[in-house]
């Protein structure tokens, strides 16, 4: 019985991942492989050292992130940089009003 329960949980998790469709405003977390990653995790008491916001541009998902400056990175490249390519994505329950298209992002000071 326990085996069936565990198998069901694993299958449900796989199904959720396989059906994931990125949306503007999704928040993605990972533990990066940078030198300062461990210090950030310890200082924040979090398993994650890096966070970004997903947005869709020309039908493709990107991540806004703060690296040496604020940049956007293709989602697959962002995931590949993480430790063991492990990440967590969260979405606000009522996020239908949030859209990157509604905002004008500045990447430099005037």
Task: Identify the notable features of this structure and list them briefly.
32% strand, disordered C terminus, 110 residues, globular, 5-stranded antiparallel β-sheet
Give a description of the structure.
This protein has 110 residues and is an alpha+beta fold. The protein is 29% helix and 32% strand. It has three helices and five strands, in the order H-E-H-E-E-E-H-E. The chain has a five-stranded antiparallel β-sheet with strand order 4-3-2-1-5, sandwiched between helices. The termini are far apart. The model is unreliable at 1-16 and 102-110 (pLDDT under 50).
Total beta strand runs = 5
Which structural category do the helix and sheet elements fall into? Answer: alpha+beta
- Average pLDDT: 75
Largest sheet: 5 strands, antiparallel
Strand order of the largest sheet: 4-3-2-1-5
Write down the overall geometry.
globular
Radius of gyration: 16 Å
The parts where pLDDT drops under 50 for at least 5 residues are 1-16, 102-110
- Measured as a percent range, the helix fraction is 25-40%
Brief sketch in words of this structure:
Helices cover 29% and strands 32% of the residues. With 110 residues, it is α+β, with helices and mostly antiparallel strands.
Give me the secondary-structure topology.
Layout: H1 2-18, E1 27-32, H2 37-44, E2 50-57, E3 60-66, E4 70-74, H3 75-81, E5 82-90
Antiparallel strand pairs: 1-2, 1-5, 2-3, 3-4
């Amino acid at each position: 019985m326990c085996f069936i329960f565990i198998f069901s949980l694993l299958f449900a998790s796989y199904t959720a991942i396989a059906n994931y469709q990125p949306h503007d405003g999704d928040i993605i977390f990972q533990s990066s492989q940078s030198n300062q990653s461990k210090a950030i995790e310890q200082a924040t008491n979090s398993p994650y050292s890096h966070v970004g916001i997903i947005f869709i541009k020309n039908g493709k998902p990107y991540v806004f992130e703060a690296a040496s400056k604020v940049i956007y990175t293709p989602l697959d490249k962002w995931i590949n940089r993480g430790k063991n390519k492990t990440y967590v994505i969260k979405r606000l329950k009522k996020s239908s009003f949030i859209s990157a298209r509604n905002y004008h992002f500045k990447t430099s000071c005037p």
